[in-house]
């Protein structure tokens, strides 16, 4: 009998008994030593940390089993883990914000430098050609560049107004030089500019030069302005998107991911990678900018290549001096026909009286001056037949190449952001150790839940987040609309149009005039037909009676005899309406 009892005791000692549950295992095999060391190194007071495992019934986020965390420690860890997660998101995204800011600064500085270089080139060319005559009328030319810069910087009027005003002032200044034997009153000059700006183009004192300059400058400046605005919008939208606060559900999910292992007494156990991806996909999906992000980058690249090629900003700016020289030469060469038409419509001007009468300048002298301007322009300032190679064009080519190269990195940014966050060892186990035990959210083991995608339908099955936590919030929708509006503006600019101009809708909805911009515009005026309705006719008062009415002018405080600017200002209500449409973008 004693032998049988000894055999039974031996068998009982060899058979495994019932294993302890999860809580009892933690109680037997785990302590709070590691947790106290880790949190003590982070600055936590050891008096707030239990010296041994305690019951976890007070926990709100972590599993309510034996724990090393009090309620206060759990709350502090929730805040800390959220800060860490947001910091990783901003750190992973900093290169994108810096890239957009760098592109904006480089392109903006280059466009400003090209405009300034063009103004300097024109001043040197005309000062060499006209001498004192140019110095007397230099404010007309500097005023043109000032208004071009105002438009580019979004603080000025439309390009149509700037160019029409310039040609009107140029005509007021240079037409009397052809007839020094006459004196031209303000009313006569008013009639002259009104006739030159008539809708039927019956008087073209400068030939086709105004149309050609308008075509080149409008396309280049509209594209450059939309491009810079697009970069600025992208930079601001990305920066604001990355600062959106997390929802309560995401805060709790991140705490379960990285904070609860500390409360369980196993701080060295890394979270499972699939666990991290589900949390990151759900929390970051609500703040992402896809699919509008890809369309925005396509718009940037397309417009940049336009500015490098058919809408060359550098070539358009450098052609300003050439176009003005061509216009002055045309006026001088056709002065007889132009003068006859003006005298017929506006009457004969008064002759200079008595001794104050000036002798007319010899025709050969005037021809020499104006012809020399054209000759120097052809040699010194490249025309449309030859694309210049300058530091400006070289820099633009390099920047566009850099933009194209880097777009590949930023195109999949929002889709790759969860992978970048979970690549940090604080957030998930290394991908090479995926088969090793990890923190599943409930304990040590393997994460068995599937990793869901970022689409709205897939996020409905996210096991770590509720539906409301992964849905797009209102602020993100607003930022997507801003991005979409910038994309629309760039696409329209690629057609040579500006959404903010008051006549865009009228042109685009008509016979398709917006499509008249051919890419091969460097082959001369014959390659591109100028827009039929430019320059825009002046507004008239209907009470003007027979003879065309009264031209509405805004003299900006200058005397009429001093070469007043002829203003054709846009309608404020229509501008506000179109600006609102541009901000809303397509739905």
TrEMBL record:
It comes from Callorhinus ursinus (Northern fur seal). The keyword Membrane applies. The keyword Membrane applies. Cell surface proteoglycan. Residues 1-23 form the signal peptide. The gene is GPC2. Keywords: Cell membrane, Glycoprotein, GPI-anchor, Heparan sulfate, Lipoprotein, Membrane, Proteoglycan, Signal. One of its GO terms (cellular component) is synapse. One of its GO terms (biological process) is regulation of protein localization to membrane. Coiled coil: none annotated. Belongs to the glypican family. It is a lipid-anchor; GPI-anchor. This is Glypican-2. InterPro entries: Glypican, Glypican_CS. Residues 454-475, 531-565 are annotated as: Disordered. Its main location: membrane. It is found in: Cell membrane.
């Amino acid at each position: 009998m004693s032998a049988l009892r000894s055999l039974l005791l031996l068998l009982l000692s060899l058979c495994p008994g019932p294993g302890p549950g999860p809580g009892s295992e933690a109680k037997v095999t785990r302590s709070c030593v590691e947790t106290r060391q880790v949190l003590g190194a982070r600055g936590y007071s050891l008096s707030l940390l239990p010296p041994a495992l305690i019951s976890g019934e007070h926990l709100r986020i972590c599993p309510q089993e034996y724990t090393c965390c009090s309620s206060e420690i759990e709350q502090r860890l929730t805040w800390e883990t959220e800060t860490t997660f947001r910091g990783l998101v901003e750190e992973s995204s900093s290169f994108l914000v810096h890239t957009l800011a760098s592109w904006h600064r480089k392109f903006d500085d280059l466009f400003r430098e090209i405009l300034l270089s063009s103004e300097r080139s024109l001043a040197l060319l005309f000062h060499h050609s006209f001498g004192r005559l140019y110095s007397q009328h230099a404010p007309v030319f500097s005023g043109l560049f000032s208004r071009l810069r105002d438009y580019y910087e979004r603080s000025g009027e439309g390009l149509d107004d700037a160019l029409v005003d310039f040609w009107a002032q140029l005509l007021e200044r240079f037409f009397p030089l052809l007839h020094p034997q006459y004196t031209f009153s303000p009313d006569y000059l008013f009639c002259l500019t009104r006739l030159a700006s008539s809708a039927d183009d019956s008087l073209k004192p400068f030939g086709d030069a105004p149309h050609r300059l308008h075509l080149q400058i409008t396309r280049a400046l509209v594209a450059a302005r939309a491009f810079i605005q697009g970069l600025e919008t992208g930079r601001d939208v990305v920066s604001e998107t990355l600062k959106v606060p997390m929802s309560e559900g995401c805060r709790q999910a991140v705490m379960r991911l990285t904070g609860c292992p500390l409360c369980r007494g196993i701080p060295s156990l890394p979270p499972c990678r699939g666990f991290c991806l589900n949390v990151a996909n759900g929390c970051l999906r609500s703040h992402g900018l896809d699919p509008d992000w890809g369309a925005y980058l396509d718009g940037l690249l397309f417009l940049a290549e336009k500015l490098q090629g058919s809408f060359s900003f550098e070539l358009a700016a450098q052609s300003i001096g050439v176009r003005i020289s061509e216009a002055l030469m045309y006026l001088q060469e056709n002065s007889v026909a132009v003068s006859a038409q003006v005298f017929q419509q506006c009457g004969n001007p008064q002759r200079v009286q008595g001794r104050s009468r000036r002798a007319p300048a010899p025709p050969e002298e005037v021809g020499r001056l104006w012809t020399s301007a054209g000759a120097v322009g052809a040699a010194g300032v490249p025309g449309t037949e030859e694309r210049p190679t300058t530091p400006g064009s070289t820099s633009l080519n390099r920047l566009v190449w850099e933009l194209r190269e880097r777009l590949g990195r930023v195109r999949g940014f929002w889709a790759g952001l969860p992978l970048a966050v979970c690549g940090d060892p604080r957030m998930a186990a290394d991908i090479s150790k995926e088969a090793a035990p990890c923190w599943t959210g409930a304990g040590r083991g393997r994460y068995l839940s599937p990793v869901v995608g970022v689409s709205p339908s897939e996020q409905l099955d996210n096991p770590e987040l509720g539906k409301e936590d992964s849905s797009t919030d209102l602020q993100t929708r607003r930022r997507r609309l801003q991005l979409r509006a910038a994309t629309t503006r760039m696409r329209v600019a690629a057609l040579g149009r500006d959404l903010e101009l008051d006549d865009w809708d009228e042109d685009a909805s008509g016979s398709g005039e917006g499509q008249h911009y051919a890419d091969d515009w460097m082959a001369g005026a014959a390659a591109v037909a100028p827009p039929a309705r430019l320059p825009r006719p002046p507004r008239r008062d209907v009470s003007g009676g027979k003879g065309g009415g009264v031209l509405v002018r805004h003299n900006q405080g200058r005397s009429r005899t001093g070469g007043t600017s002829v203003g054709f200002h846009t309608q404020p209500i229509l501008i506000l309406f179109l600006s609102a449409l541009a901000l809303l973008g397509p739905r």
